[in-house]
Amino acid sequence: MFKALKLIITVSIVSLAVFFGYQTHTEPQVRHNSLAHRLTHPTDTRVRYRIGDVDARFGLTHDDVKRLTAEAVQIWHDGTNKEWFIYDDDAKLTINLIYDERQIETNARQQIKQNLNDLHNHHQMSSESLQKRHQQLNAQFHALETELDLWHSDYQKTINRLRITSDDQERHALTQKHEQLLTKQRLINEKINAYQTAQNEFNQAVDKFNAQTNKLNQSIDQANARLTAREFHKGEFRHGGDTLINVYEFENTDELRLTLAHELGHALYLDHNDDPTALMYPYAQKQQLKDFKLKQADIDLLENRQFYK
């Protein structure tokens, strides 16, 4: 009887070992679940995860991160019509938000972007103001040109008539008109002087604008050197003694959601692909942050896992 019982136990252990070995090979993500869970729920291949430490300096609560992670999980569920992850307060896989020099650098990069945006907006406003002022000066110039031409024509006619008239009454009227034309000439000259002053001020403003343009171009060059696309070192997936997803930096919650989804992909034993719009592309660059959907390149990685069914 004891031999039979021992045989049954041995067969059960061997069968269980074979089952778990096969399951681990075909569904490698189950390695991230506890042995107790695998024994009590042998057919459940979903990865169980929990939220660990959330540094308050990120400005997010534990519940905020839990919600954003659930949204990241949903990206995988919606893209494959299969549940790959489930929340469990006792899970091995722990998601942490760790604040260090990387987030400080991200904050600095965001400030650079904001400063660059402010410079660009100021530059655009200056450009529009100069264009408007240029149009006004052109209109003023053409109006003065027309007024001066009319005055010159009227003045010449008056002078010519004064030279040949012998009528005292007409001469008196022409003399008065001549005085009026001289007065008008002084007014026109004042307008010309005002125009020239305005034109000089405009030229100075253009010089200042050109200097601002050079400064903006230099700022853009400096920003481009610093704001290059970076690998997904915003977060990392670790497994071994501890199974962790650590997130170190993000610019906003949309980027955090995508970073979490990317690292969850690594928890499914996926490597990177070469589609710059895909979730598993190694660089955070061209992905659509809002309402992200898995790309075919992501699904291909999943379907091409060894012995994936």
What does this structure look like?
By secondary structure, the chain is of the alpha/beta class. It folds into two domains: 20-104 and 231-303, Collagenase (Catalytic Domain) (3-Layer(aba) Sandwich); 113-226, Helix Hairpins. Helix content is 63%, strand content 9%. The strands form two sheets. The chain has a five-stranded mixed beta sheet with strand order 2-1-3-6-5, covered by helices on one side. It has a two-stranded antiparallel ribbon with strand order 4-7. Strand 1, helix 3 and strand 2 (85-87) form a beta-alpha-beta unit.
Key features of this structure:
309 residues, alpha/beta, Collagenase (Catalytic Domain), Helix Hairpins, five-stranded mixed β-sheet, two-stranded antiparallel sheet, 7 helices, 63% helix, rod-shaped
Q: Report the span from N to C terminus.
A: 41 Å
Give the helix/strand class: alpha/beta
* Biggest sheet descriptor: 5 strands, mixed
In the CATH hierarchy, what is the superfamily of the largest domain?
Answer: Collagenase (Catalytic Domain)
Percent of residues in helices: 55-70%
Q: What is the CATH architecture descriptor of the largest domain?
A: 3-Layer(aba) Sandwich
Count of distinct strands: 7
Q: Reading side by side through the largest sheet, how are the strands ordered?
A: 2-1-3-6-5
Task: Give a quick summary of the entry.
The protein contains seven helices and seven strands; from the N terminus they run H-H-E-H-E-E-H-H-E-E-E-H-E-H. The chain has 309 residues and is α/β, with parallel strands linked by helices.
